[in-house]
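Quick question, first post here. What does this chain look like in 3D?
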Amino acid sequence: MKTLIICEKNISARRIAQILSEGKAKQSRLYGIPYYFFNNHIVIGLKGHIMKLDFPKEYKKWHEIEPRELVDVEPIKKIAEGSIARAIKTLSKDVGRVIIATDYDREGELIGTEVLHLLPEGIEIKRAKFSSITPAEIKKSFENLGEIDFNLSKSAEARQHIDLIWGASLTRFISLASHQLGKDFLSVGRVQSPTLALIIEREKEIQNFVPKPFWKIVAVCEKDGIQFEAKYPENIWDEDLANEIYEKIKETKKGKVKFFEKEIKQNAPPPPFDTTSFLKEASKMRFSATQAMKIAEELYMNGLISYPRTDNTVYPALPFRNILDKLKKIFPKEVEKVLGMIRRKPVAGKKFSKDHPPIHPVGVAKLEGGHAKIYELVARRFMATLSKNALVEVKNAEIEANDVILKASGLVVKEKNWMEVYPVKVSEKILPDMEVGDDIVILKVKKIKDETKPPKRYTQGSLIVEMEKKGLGTKSTRHEILGKLYQRNYIKGGQIVPTPSAFAVVEALQSGAEIITKPEMTAHLEEEMNKIAEGKKSFSEVVEESRELLRKAFEILEEKEGKIGAIIREALEKQNYFGICPKCGEKLVLRKSAKGRRFVGCSNFPKCSNSYPLPQKGSVFFEGEYCKKCGAPIISIVSKGKKWKKCLNNCK
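> Answer (accepted):
Ran it through. Tokens below.
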């Protein structure tokens, strides 16, 4: 029987064809689309979704259709990849069976079902499910074919409908209200807006933070020739009390040990990578969430790591020794260490799911650049999870000095074990052994004034963790949401800072319809979509519920349209301000040429034609600095996670 295998992308189609044919598959093209054939098999790759969900053509005219009307318009599906669709129709004419071999998750199931209407009626359709594109797993998957999960597919389709309806109607409303049209439209989304609200909330906490002073008392002590610090155990909020304690300790030159304990503690390895923890660690290496996922997906497609979109932190039964043998080619020293300290059972996290295992290496290859760094991160994490606990010696002491109790602690890593293959920062502190009643020499006493610190800004990694906690988005979409926020110039920098337009959009939505910015609403809809996948709710029920929420939001938004527009226009004017023109003293503002290229020009044009070119990629903004040489504004540029400054006049 002739079989057509449909994969998610060409790269996976090529690899699967080579695995199943044991390297004998040949390539051909149809309508410009590559496909592979061997024996009675044909393998073709899609480009992700071949169908595009959109509103009918008559609803595209922003000025003629009220945004709220879109809430009740039924979107339509159109073929977005015509050449692929024609190729599948032609190739499936004389086959007896079709195997859907797209990624096995909610989105992959929808991508697979989108092609079904292109196939002949009555044809047998099967599903191949796998978590890595390796010979063993692919062969096992195709020997144990299953059925398409239409509930899972419908849950993804519901997400498409809900996100389109919410995004299109709200984006159109905000953009029209603020007169930001064309390429400068303002984006609003079901997940995007609550995520942006989290960033704004954190920024307001930082801006409104009032430092509170406190004092710390630290004594530099010595025993057996070893110096260490002993501290008053609490922050002191009253300066008079701090002075009193300081003077009491300063009066005496010695202390007496009142308590001492020493113990060896087990320090377990970190759990296996799920998507969230992987992105968090990758962000510490200065990879954006989008970059890290793109590289991880490419490593997966090339059979080097398992599927990178997973909520699982518990390994199933894997060929651990076999994987270590493969890793030995690239990490020979590390693998030898792991084999010498291998634990009886791999460490496990708290999250378990049956769809895919945690992210782990499955193959090896010589890699360069970012691919090598991400692969090494995954490989080292995997090796750490198989390694014995580190052993840490912890010491704690209490020392009395003139009726004041000071505390001292020590920490020394005795056996690194997993830390040898997955390095982490450990601050070791030496504390000598003691016994109760021992005398301690006090060399010096310090009274240190400090103040409370504002909360830290989110990084991409920490924000994705927070999004997961709040139920915003999924493992497959969170990094895409962050990418959109950067792309729409709502946020900038590695330590995420919101722009004035972000403040304006969130404040406008909160004043109009706060529910749009609340994570609870989005999290609720995510749960409802999960119920579709579980067969507990229908597609139409969940989509209609989301429409009803949106109708109520529009009732409030439309009443405050004028106020909302004014708030956003004022913020955008601030965001597009680039300082004072050194030639005429008027404002310099962000402009765009007829070809869409951005530049800074004088608002006094045509009387003043002063202008400056701008880099066309990355976020650009003015932070109030002027060049000391020429007087032109200095701009900040953020691109690919890096920030630098330059004079608009290119002074060096």
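The mean pLDDT is 91.
The chain is about 35% helix and 25% strand.
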